[in-house]
Amino acid sequence: xxxxxxxxxxxxxxxxxxxxxxxxxxxxxxxxxxxxxxxxxxxxxxxxxxxxxxxxxxxxxxxxxxxxxxxxxxxxxxxxxxxxxxxxxxxxxxxxxxxxxxxxxxxxxxxxxxxxxxxxxxxxxxxxxxxxxxxxxxxxxxxxxxxxxxxxxxxxxxxxxxxxxxxxxxxxxxxxxxxxxxxxxxxxxxxxxxxxxxxxxxxxxxxxxxxxxxxxx
Amino acid sequence: xxxxxxxxxxxxxxxxxxxxxxxxxxxxxxxxxxxxxxxxxxxxxxxxxxxxxxxxxxxxxxxxxxxxxxxxxxxxxxxxxxxxxxxxxxxxxxxxxxxxxxxxxxxxxxxxxxxxxxxxxxxxxxxxxxxxxxxxxxxxxxxxxxxxxxxxxxxxxxxxxxxxxxxxxxxxxxxxxxxxxxxxxxxxxxxxxxxxxxxxxxxxxxxxxxxxxxxxxxxxxxxxxxxxxxxxxxxxxxxxxxxxxxxxxxxxxxxxxxxxxxxxxxxxxxxxxxxxxxxxxxxxxxxxxxxxxxxxxxxxxxxxxxxxxxxxxxxxxxxxxxxxxxxxxxxxxxxxxxxxxxxxxxxxxxxxxxxxxxxxxxxxxxxxxxxxxxxxxxxxxxxxxxxxxxxxxxxxxxxxxxxxx
Lengths: 217, 405
Ligand SMILES: Nc1ncnc2c1ncn2[C@@H]1O[C@H](COP(=O)(O)OP(=O)(O)OP(=O)(O)O)[C@@H](O)[C@H]1O
Ligand SMILES: [Mg+2]
What we know:
The structure holds 2 protein chains of 2 kinds.
Chain A: E1 2-11, E2 14-24, E3 29-34, H1 40-47, E4 55-60, E5 63-64, H2 70-80, E6 81-84, H3 96-100, H4 110-122, H5 138-150, E7 156-160, H6 168-183, E8 187-191, H7 195-198, E9 203-208, E10 212-215
Parallel strand pairs in A: 3-8, 3-9, 6-7, 7-8
Antiparallel strand pairs in A: 1-2, 1-4, 4-5, 9-10
Chain B: H1 2-16, H2 21-47, E1 61-64, H3 83-100, E2 109-114, E3 122-125, E4 136-139, E5 142-145, H4 150-155, E6 159-163, H5 164-171, E7 180-183, E8 186-194, H6 198-206, E9 214-219, H7 220-224, H8 239-249, H9 260-312, H10 317-354, H11 367-394, H12 397-402
Magnesium ion binds near residues 40, 41 and 86 of chain A.
């Protein structure tokens, strides 16, 4: 269970959430939909611990993370959360491999390399491992970013528009893979405009302009 | 914790070194500029008066000695408290110390007036500095030209003999017979070249580091005619012979020592140059510090995105911090080492082409200055990085990723 309790968030005068109470259920595929600018990215940034500038509490599997220090938070981010941004946000100047292992000390870790190969095969980008990111297409980059998010086998996967740049086949592959993760006791949150996502959702929310979340499913 | 941070930084650097090229290059250029600026300025002060062989007679010492058959007798010069010479030498030494911190590029000219047959006799070498009063003697050897004739000696002609090294330095060739050596109010025709021996080299090295000291031997009778020369007289123990020469050839006036004014004038000039030197250093360093700050600021701003991505996937604040400090210091040290090599090369080339004849005497460049600046800059790099990385470290991760910070 990942719970936001009385969370308020604003950018200057632009109040995005006021006293929001929101729970993500574990081991479910949760879809969050909503108009552009409604605050979806803001919401998942808070859930992914990338945004600390809010008031209220966030209970992450029973731990109140608003009270944690940097080291504990970093460890949680590293081990428990996989984040996929709306854009790929890879470092362009270095290779795919270096991007994937950016924070990893042991670059020859067999298990990790095996996992990278598996995931890259799955998303049909295995040829790009040693290419510079700047030479990849948008869709390819997005798939590399997904591999990066999934690499550490996190328990909470947050994907902001994972299918935005992808064609139908690739979208299906990725979504069904994410869906299959729920069977492995992972929790998946997908933010999307994409109709295709709907059919994978166990739970579905609609974020409306004033920062209210409506459950639709 | 620290080791962990260091290790992650090393690995981070490995994959990112190419991104640091610009930082490296700018840093490098900055350092080279500073080194060259400071070092050339420093050397220019030292060499400026001699640039066009325009020898000033600021520090002209005219030594006359009557080459006695028993040179050992000179050892008692200082016993006789001919204090002026000691003072002069001492003062010069102090000036040079003060200004150039051990090294001296003073180009002083010694005119030794001697009687005609000095070649056959001994010259006195470092009677004071090397042997604590016991004179070390050597014999001169003529390799080109001739010694002055009796007639020239009688007339006090402005003819002279110099050492081969002097000839090479001033005229660019060993056989400089027939050339004219102009300095101060003198124009001395070179009629003979004397062989340099290691002794001579050592002499001029050890003699208060007077690396660029030239000796011109002229007939003692030539000196008589020049009242403008600032002189001191080295007395011979063998006073009878000296007296004879003096009564025959030189006016009594030459006994008196008149250096005080010259010395104080020299000091004033040097002080002025010295304050200019410090001024240049300070301005350069300020520019350098501001430049370094900007460099690091830009560099760290460029790193915001990468650091935020690292934070997203689990890097701690400390890891980010140590990565930045380590990378900056590492890149800085690389730039520093390259800058040292390149600036020394450039400086040597510069001196080679602008002071070609003096070049062999530029035996070293002040490494101390380079090291001090290098260490200071390294400390500044770490300090600035620490200061400037706070923003990156404490930024909201999502803002850093999106580039809003
Ligand atoms: N760093 C920021 N500073 C100021 N305003 C911001 C910032 N980030 C987002 N906003 C504003 O907050 C609102 C919500 O932004 P958010 O990115 O969460 O929208 P979104 O629902 O993800 O939209 P989209 O579907 O287009 O991605 C928007 O009006 C946006 O302009
Ligand atoms: Mg968004």
